[in-house]
């Protein structure tokens, strides 16, 4: 047993060098992390990938993943490097692996002749962990994963490693804890008040600080506030920017003692979710629903329950902008990972003036929660203090885990979890994420004139079909913009926004035509990519369910009572592909038999 264990360790060590990186390695890996984070606020939070290709100190190619469903960082870097990628070193902040069936990142590095790959952090998701590392090694590249001998490395590589962790902190927290990464933000006076004793809080912090908050909102999947904030401040919780990602607004209120009219009930540009306890003010729930606000009931409304719900919706990053009454239980329940405090050089005084964190039950200073990785920054006249309440999960590669990953890859079936009776899919980075309409697989289909048009994803095609044939300038402009959209997220936002704001521009037959449009797009996708067709066929016998918490038509909904039309269409397509495969096998058998008899 001991000899066998050593043999396995030696096998894996061959693909994971533990050599101490050079100063060039540190600089290029840090640059890869910076590239990965350069999209912040432009698209919804997702695994962040950056790639730098270099010969020694000279960089010959760079790239970063703009959004899920777009061209990988590695492909971009190889394209920019051209022939100079041969025998170069590729620096990756995160091990490749965004969507099953899309091996373009690894294939690009292998075909370009990259001889060495330095990986900052191995992929934290179990179904992707070690997969690309093994594939790159099998392609002949020397693969080095930073972090194994971190203490023996210099400060430069430690800084780069930390940057690789930070740029994907939400993904690491989600993978380790089973909940999204949460950042608690607040602004207070220098004497610790977030508002006057009357509740007035406009404005505690400076214009510069508020601009920073807008940027943080754009980097989040959702913003959480409590009922007190809605009643007192009537916030909009927008990003105050043209374009870019728009987070969902989440209101937590057990009794729904909320105003009839509030800025958050305007969902023309972005969605609002009100979370409450079962049975609370059914008449008010009906009013919110009539305005397009989604209401979600819980048996018992707690910060942990809401974060579990956000996890199931596929969220990575949550920004909490609540008052002390909600921030205290959020901290106590362990759902807050980081604190972001703006301290304004003002004094307001007052014994009853609210503070940023309510009662935590601590009676001695020794019980105080200690922040780690504390940083200070002056923002305008304010001081910004940030720190971690929970350390970033350490995702060091270990030999047993990589051996298991390698064994899974060597099986005849793609490295997916053992097939359950029901297969859920939603985000492209999920185990069956290639079934998602946001997966990075362009399709080509004829338009109404017969001309073949290329679409960057199924979502691009589907959203555009809402307005195809409508003789109105806005509708035609929207179709054009959707086709040019850089990501499926942008395409979805364009289509959904116009449909909400101008329902009269949606084609009259859309209630029926949307099923045909989706069926056409799915057929084009799964017949154009052999890997996707094979993936779909491996699900034979299982029920496919789009695990969307809010889409009652295409998905299953939170309670599983949605129509799951996307899952049904995929299963119908699977049946047709299986039948076609069987017919081809029968035809081949008959042909061989006829030839033999002749």
TrEMBL record:
GO MF terms, alphabetically ordered: 5-amino-6-(5-phosphoribosylamino)uracil reductase activity; diaminohydroxyphosphoribosylaminopyrimidine deaminase activity; NADP binding
According to the UniProt record, what class of enzyme is this? Answer: oxidoreductase
**Keywords associated with the record:** Multifunctional enzyme, NADP, Oxidoreductase
Q: InterPro entries from the xrefs?
A: CMP_dCMP_dom (IPR002125), Cytidine_deaminase-like (IPR016193), DHFR-like_dom_sf (IPR024072), Eubact_RibD (IPR004794), NADAR (IPR012816), RibD_C (IPR011549), RibDG_C (IPR002734), Riboflavin_Biosynth_HTPR (IPR050765)
> What GO biological process terms are annotated to this protein in UniProt?
riboflavin biosynthetic process
Xref: Gene3D superfamilies: Cytidine Deaminase, domain 2, Dihydrofolate Reductase, subunit A, YbiA-like
Database matches in PROSITE patterns: CYT_DCMP_DEAMINASES_2
Instruction: State the pathway, as annotated in the record.
Output: Cofactor biosynthesis; riboflavin biosynthesis; 5-amino-6-(D-ribitylamino)uracil from GTP: step 3/4
The CMP/dCMP-type deaminase domain is annotated at 24-132
Gene name, Swiss-Prot/TrEMBL? LOC112274232
Name of the molecule in the record: 5-amino-6-(5-phosphoribosylamino)uracil reductase
State the EC number(s): 1.1.1.193
Q: Which SUPFAM superfamilies match?
A: Cytidine deaminase-like, Dihydrofolate reductase-like, YbiA-like
Question: Highest taxon of the source?
Answer: Eukaryota
Residue stretches spanning the membrane:
none
């Amino acid at each position: 047993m001991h000899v066998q264990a050593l043999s396995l360790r030696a096998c894996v060590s061959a693909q994971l060098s533990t050599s101490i990186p050079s100063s060039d390695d540190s600089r290029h890996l840090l640059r890869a992390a910076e590239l990965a984070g350069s999209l912040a606020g432009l698209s919804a939070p997702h695994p962040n990938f950056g790639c730098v290709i270099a010969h020694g100190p000279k960089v010959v190619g760079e790239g970063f993943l703009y959004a899920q469903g777009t061209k990988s960082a590695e492909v971009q870097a190889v394209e920019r490097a051209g022939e100079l990628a041969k025998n170069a070193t590729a620096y990756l902040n995160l091990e490749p692996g965004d969507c099953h069936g899309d091996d373009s990142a690894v294939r690009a590095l292998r075909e370009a002749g990259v001889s060495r790959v330095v990986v900052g952090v191995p992929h934290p998701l179990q179904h992707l962990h070690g997969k690309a590392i093994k594939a790159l090694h099998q392609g002949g590249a020397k693969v080095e994963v930073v972090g194994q001998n971190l203490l023996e490395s210099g400060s430069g590589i430690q800084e780069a490693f930390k940057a690789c962790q930070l740029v994907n902190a939400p993904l690491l927290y989600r993978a380790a804890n089973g909940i999204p990464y949460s950042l608690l933000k607040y602004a207070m006076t220098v004497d610790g008040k977030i508002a006057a004793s009357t509740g007035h809080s406009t404005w505690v912090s400076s214009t510069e600080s508020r601009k920073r908050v807008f940027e943080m909102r754009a980097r989040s999947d959702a913003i959480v506030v409590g009922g007190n904030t809605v009643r007192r401040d009537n916030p909009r919780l927008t990003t105050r920017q043209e374009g870019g990602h728009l987070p969902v607004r989440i209101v937590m209120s057990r009794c729904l003692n909320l105003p009839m009219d509030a800025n958050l009930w305007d969902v023309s540009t972005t969605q609002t979710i009100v979370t409450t306890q079962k049975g609370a003010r059914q008449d008010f729930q009906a009013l919110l629903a009539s305005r397009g606000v989604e209401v979600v009931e819980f048996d018992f409304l707690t910060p942990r329950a809401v974060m579990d719900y956000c996890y199931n919706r596929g969220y990575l990053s949550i920004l909490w902008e609540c008052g002390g009454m909600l921030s205290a239980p959020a901290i106590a329940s362990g759902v807050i990972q980081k604190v972001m405090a703006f301290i304004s050089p003002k004094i307001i005084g007052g014994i009853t003036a609210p503070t940023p964190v309510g009662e935590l039950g601590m009676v001695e200073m020794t019980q105080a929660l200690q922040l780690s990785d504390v940083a200070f920054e002056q923002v305008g006249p304010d001081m910004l203090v940030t720190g971690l309440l929970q350390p970033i999960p350490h995702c060091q590669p270990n030999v047993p885990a990589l051996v298991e990953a390698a064994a899974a890859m060597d099986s005849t079936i793609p490295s997916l979890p053992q097939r359950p009776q029901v297969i859920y899919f939603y985000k492209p980075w999920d185990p069956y994420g290639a079934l998602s309409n946001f997966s990075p697989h362009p399709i080509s289909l004829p338009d109404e004139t017969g001309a073949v048009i290329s679409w960057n994803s199924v979502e691009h095609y589907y959203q555009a079909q809402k307005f195809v044939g409508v003789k109105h300038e806005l509708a035609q402009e929207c179709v054009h913009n959707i086709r040019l959209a850089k990501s499926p997220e942008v395409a979805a936002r364009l289509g959904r926004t116009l449909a909400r704001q101008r329902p009269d521009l949606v084609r009259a037959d859309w209630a029926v035509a949307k099923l045909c449009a989706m069926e056409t797009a799915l057929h084009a996708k799964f017949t154009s990519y052999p890997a996707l067709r094979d993936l779909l066929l491996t699900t034979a016998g299982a029920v496919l369910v789009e695990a969307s918490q809010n889409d009652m038509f295409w998905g299953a909904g939170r309670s599983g009572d949605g129509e799951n039309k996307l899952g049904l269409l995929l299963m119908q397509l699977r049946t047709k592909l299986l039948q076609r495969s069987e017919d081809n096998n029968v035809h081949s058998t008959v042909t061989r038999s006829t030839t033999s008899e002749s």
